[in-house]
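Read as chain and fold; for instance:
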Amino acid sequence: MFGAGCYFAEDAEKVDQYARPDAGPSGPGHAELAELHARLYREGRTHPGEDVFYAFVARVVCGACLHTDGLDRNRPPRDAASGQEIFVEKYRRPVNSDMKQLVEIPGTTPPERYQTLVVNVAKGPVPGVSSRSVLRNREFVSFNRVAIYPEYVLAFLRKLT
């Protein structure tokens, strides 16, 4: 929703919205998960035979954070509540032309840009913003992959209670 970046959440509920099922060694997509299966299911541990979901636990250096309740979809994209611009022109890289760069921090000398976009939970509907995007869980979007250290992989089952 906010461009090419790495998306993080502090609530497992948000992560669970994007997790895809792993049905096991005989399930669809097994070839893509073969290396992960070899690392997780060894020394007597086996896949449970039902849908398993995975999530990373990562350490992320956020640096200076630009907060928003959501984006006004007009061009250029702005914070829906304050009208402040969020992104500068697309940051052109040969590998990924969708990479974004956040605006400069006001009053910094030499000029410094924000490093992380924090999408806060809105207190109510925000004009021009889909309510699905900001009303449930706060998100953190990092546009700097070197600020991210994936530390653990969690495997979990969904159980209805």
Summary: The helical segments are 12-18, 30-40, 131-134.
